[in-house]
Design brief:
Elements (H helix, E strand, L loop, with lengths): L2 E7 L6 E7 L8 H29 L7
Antiparallel strand pairs: 1-2
C-alpha cells in the first residue's frame, strides 16, 4: 500500500507538521477489509492530530492580551 503525504497547518500562531499515512484507496481485499483499512487510517489521523495539538499546546507560550 502506498503512502499519502498530508500537511497539517495551523493559521495565526502557526505550527507545521508533516504526517504520512497509508493510502486507504490502495487497500486490497473485500469490502470489509477495505473498510477496516479506511477506519484504521482515520483513527491514525485523528490520534496524530490530537498528539500534535497536545504537544503544540505544551510548547506554545501563553500570551495574555490586555
Amino acid at each position: 500500500m502506498g503512502k499519502l503525504r498530508v500537511l497539517f497547518l495551523c493559521t495565526g500562531n502557526s505550527a507545521r507538521s508533516q504526517m504520512s499515512f497509508p493510502d486507504p484507496a490502495a487497500a486490497q481485499g473485500g469490502e470489509a477489509a477495505k473498510l477496516r483499512i479506511f477506519q484504521q487510517v482515520r483513527d491514525a489521523i485523528q490520534q496524530q492530530v490530537l498528539d500534535f495539538l497536545v504537544q503544540w499546546k505544551k510548547d506554545t507560550p501563553k500570551v495574555y492580551l490586555s
